[in-house]
Amino acid sequence: MRPMGLLLATVFAGSVLALPEAGLAQCFDVAVTVAQTKPNGRPWDTEGGAYAPDIEIKLEERTFPLCKDAFSCQAPGFRASSRMVGVTVTDKDAQNDDVIGNGVCALNRGDCQVGQAYLRATPCR
Question: Which DSSP string corresponds to 20-83?
Answer without folding.
Answer: EPTTS-EEEEEEEEE-SS-TTS--S--GGG--S--EEEEETTEEPPPBTT-SEEEEEEEEESSS
